[in-house]
Amino acid sequence: MNSLEPPVIATPASHRFSLFLKIGGICLLIALLHVPLALLRGVLKERQGYQLAATDEIAGIWGRQQLVIGPVLAIPYQYKKPVVKSKIVNGRAVQVEETELTEALAYFLPEVLAVNGSIDPEVRHRGIYEAVVYSTKVSLAGNFQPDFAVAGIEADRIEWEKAQVQFGVSDLHGIRSIGPVQLNGGKGHAFESVENDNGIWSLKAKLDGLPTTSKFDFAFEVALQGSGRFEVAPVGKVTTVLLSSPWSDPSFIGAYLPVKRDVGAGFSAEWKTAPFSRGFPAAWTDRTVKLEEMSRKITREGFGVRFAQPVNGYDVAERAQKYAMLFFVLVFAVFFLFEITAGIRIHPLQYGMVGAALWVFFLGFLALTEFWPVGPAYAVSAAACTLLISSYAWSFLKTGSRTMVIGGGLGATYGYLFFVLKSQDYALLAGTVALFAVLALVMFCTRKINWYGLELNAPPVVPGGR
Description:
The chain is an alpha+beta fold. The chain is about 40% helix and about 30% strand. It contains 11 helices and 19 strands. The chain has helices at about 10-30, 35-60, 150, 290-300, 315-320, 325-340, 350-370, 375-395, 400-420, 425-445, 450-455, and strands at about 65-90, 90-110, 110-125, 130-145, 155-160, 165-170, 175-180, 180-185, 190, 190-195, 205, 215-225, 230, 240-245, 250-255, 260-265, 265-275, 285, 305. Strands 1, 2, 5, 6, 10, 11, 13, 15, 18 and 19 form a 10-stranded mixed sheet that branches. Strands 3, 4, 7, 8, 9, 12, 14, 16 and 17 form a 9-stranded mixed sheet that branches. Residues about 5-10 and about 455-465 have low confidence and may be disordered.
């Protein structure tokens, strides 16, 4: 271009077009920043997979989640069943209906079941990941009252001498020891492991005949190892469970909540269930009821405690990423308002640098949560990104007051987001209030701007100038 030629002055129309082009460019940049955010979500899922694999490995060696199921009294019996047989009569084959004795098993749950246990949890590590495991010794006591007539089970012959007490836990690998079951305080009957197709009662104790009384007491103890959670199935008509532990952060779970609980440096809790509140009968026979179906009904009624850890950093990081667009929009909107009100030109590349710094916050927070608690990890990542963006913004905002607006706004936004993340139940309300407040602030700050005048009467701009 000839240096003697006058400079090309931007017309109002061209300035208006550049204004809309800048807005479109900012929107496009926000959309493009969702690409690294999507990649970050992939990294988060990968790290969660590593954590799950590590905790699963610990649980596989030590013992998995335990559900105590039983005991139940199983008594074989025989009943007459009509059968059709083929016989030769007068040289001809004819079908004859006869009856024959067929064996089945009748199951009787306890009239009363009392479970008392003390649980000792501890934290085990695999690399940077950890899992809560526990050891417990549980005593079970109660009484049986097997009555075929009351249960509506028709039996032609009851094999009392073959009766068994069956007991089960969800992970047999976690059983350290199990004592013999004593009937009426007498001789103990040892449990032994047997193959069980229904997968619920895998330990059986042969009784060699039941006491002569129709009602008899039982008692035994079992020492278990497990991880994560401990539950009991309410198999008694009246089931009482007492659990205590030095763990200070329990989460009570399952189909029933404790009727009493005391949580402090440790916890103690008591559950009590009644027969009408459970979804399975007190007695049944495998002649009419499939054991798999009964297993599902019983396990669904389990209750107990989960040994909760402090807030999982991965979960908080995942929730924080959902607010990434809010950060992009708020920060870019402030920069754009500075362009309009103060006549500052900010290059699209500078917007991109700021967007990258905002994205780095989420990456840094995710990385630090693997080593630090959520609070310090969040604070360090937020402070570093606020300082980085404020320092960079000073290079083109030129004044400390504008830079302080950026830094103060970012700090306040990060602080409010942390409040939202910690108050998960009120996250929607808190987020809505924050958006309303920000919108009101923007409307207040721009209430005197003549947008038509800004587009049509903007000062001339020499291409390449600031």
